[in-house]
Amino acid sequence: MIINADLHIHSRFSGATSDKMNIKTISLEAPRKGIDVIATGDCLHSGWIKEIKTCEIIDEGTFEMNGTRFILSTEIEDERRVHHLLYFPSFSAVEEFKKDIESKSNNLESDGRPNVHMGGEEIASLAKDVDALIGPAHAFTPWTAMYAYHDSLKSCYGDLERYVSFVELGLSADSDYADKIKELNRLTFLTNSDCHSPHPVRLAREFNRFEVRDATFDEIKKAILRIGGNKPILNVGLPPQEGKYNESACIKCYTHYELDDAQRRRWKCSCGGRIKKGVKDRINEKADFPEPHHPDHRPPYLHLIPLAEIITKAIGQHTPFTQTVTKRWNEIVDVFGSEINALIDVNIADIAKVTAPAITEAIQAFREKKVIIIPGGGGQYGKIELPSKKDGFIPISLGPKDKQTSLFDYSK
Ligand SMILES: [Zn+2]
Ligand SMILES: [Zn+2]
């Protein structure tokens, strides 16, 4: 069977997260996005574990609520500030691992994403002891990421390097970026939302599509390891330019800089702020190949712009967090079942029947890859612009029966 899985989120027990990151809300929002499996995040936190335990138990490592499956995961920050993602086979594995790191952490019970006074190799070794999977989270981000502080997997994980089976690309990178680095070729690429809110513009803004026999931890583990016929068949994510750290830019005024210019200025912006090296520049620095070398096992990468963001632009709102955007989003998702269906699969003429012409045209522009993206950097997300006729965009002409826009009044 084919499943969609978002394998990195944070609960309300992590810093700077929404109160709505509770298991029930997540379980109800996931299918609206088209997601079958969510990794819980924060599974070392007692409060969150208690909440996960309110789910129905499918097997030792798989839980379910409202039809959404959950597997146990956490993110950990090591002593060099590198973030690691871990996936556990059972509650007992979580408990055992937690005991092993208890004396090395002072915020295990206060932060869903704890810090530990250990290096990557030590953490990987404890993960291996309990049969957990481990890999670097958002590997190229200019802080709290492996390539921000290390030049190689070996430098981060030492002798446990071969135990690492995946790398999470992060919002500012895709497979074309990451496959310029030779040592990553053998790894499975994971694309996850790392969301702190269940809002549809955040949850599952990146996800993985796997071929598995069942939506369980064991089967997903096999897919990540690519054994027994299981495998990732698609990575889905934002265009990398939409990420917060795509280009090198000032973290104070967000002025963008070319790499050599930033180096000449010693990473100091003319405003006095610090310039943060973008993921694009970091990868080009690290690159073994000028062009991506995709190994045979690498699945295609689909660039997705969240529907709420497309609607926001189409109807001229300033943020996707308004009631108007939510209403339009619901109108579409109510009819087509999930966001992914509406964005990718449904006939554009059918979309025209349930929403405003401007929104239909914006979805069409997205499908035709004509949405214009202004790159992000320095901690500021990239922005999207819709194309006009002068950009060569021609809306499809719909028959009169496709234009039943009188269903809703979009003039207000
Ligand atoms: Zn992180
Ligand atoms: Zn500046």
Number of E-state strands: 16
Continuous helix count: 15
Distance between the termini: 44 Å
- Unreliable stretches (pLDDT < 50, length at least 5) are 402-412
Q: Tell me the major beta sheet.
A: 10 strands, mixed
* Estimated radius of gyration: 21 Å
Strand coverage percent:
15-25%
Helix vs. strand class: alpha/beta
- Helical residues, percent: 25-40%
Distinct bound molecules: zinc ion
> Taking all residues together, what is the mean pLDDT?
94
Shape: globular
Name the descriptors:
binds zinc ion, 30% helix, 412 residues, alpha/beta, disordered C terminus
Give an overview in words:
- By secondary structure, this protein is of the alpha/beta class.
- The chain is built from 15 helices and 16 strands.
- The strands form 4 sheets. Strands 1, 2, 3, 4, 5, 6, 7, 10, 11 and 14 form a 10-stranded mixed beta sheet that branches. Strands 8-9 form a two-stranded parallel ribbon. Strands 12-13 form a two-stranded antiparallel sheet.
- α11 packs across α12 (323-336) and α11 (307-314) packs across α15.
- Residues 402-412 have low confidence and may be disordered.
- The protein binds zinc ion (2 copies).
- One zinc ion is lined by residues 75, 83, 137-138, 144.
Short characterization:
The protein is α/β, with parallel strands linked by helices and 412 residues long. It has helices at residues 23-33, 46-52, 91-101, 120-129, 146-149, 153-157, 175-178, 217-225, 259-264, 279-286, 307-314, 323-336, 339-345, 348-354, 357-367; strands at residues 2-6, 37-39, 56-59, 62-65, 68-77, 83-88, 133-136, 166-168, 188-190, 207-211, 231-237, 249-250, 275-276, 301-303, 372-374, 383-385.
